[in-house]
Amino acid sequence: MKEDVEDKITVSAPGKIILSGEHAVVYGKPAILAAINRRLFVSVRQSSKNEIITSESPKLAEFARDFVLKTFGKPREKLRIEISSEISIGCGMGSSAALAVATTAGLFKYLNKPFDKEKINEIAYEIEKKQHGNPSGGDNTISTYGGFLWFRKETEFLKLFKQLQFDLTKFVLINTGRPKETTGEMVLGVRKLYDKNRLKTEKILNEIEKTTKQLLVAFNQMDEKLIRITIRENERLLEKLEVISNFAKKIIRGIEKLGGAAKICGAGGKKKGSGIILAFHPQKDVLFELAKKKNLPAFEVKLGEEGVRIEKS
Ligand code: MEV
Question: Which domains, ranges and CATH numbers included, belong to the chain?
Answer without folding.
Answer: 9-167+303-310 (3.30.230.10), 171-299 (3.30.70.890)
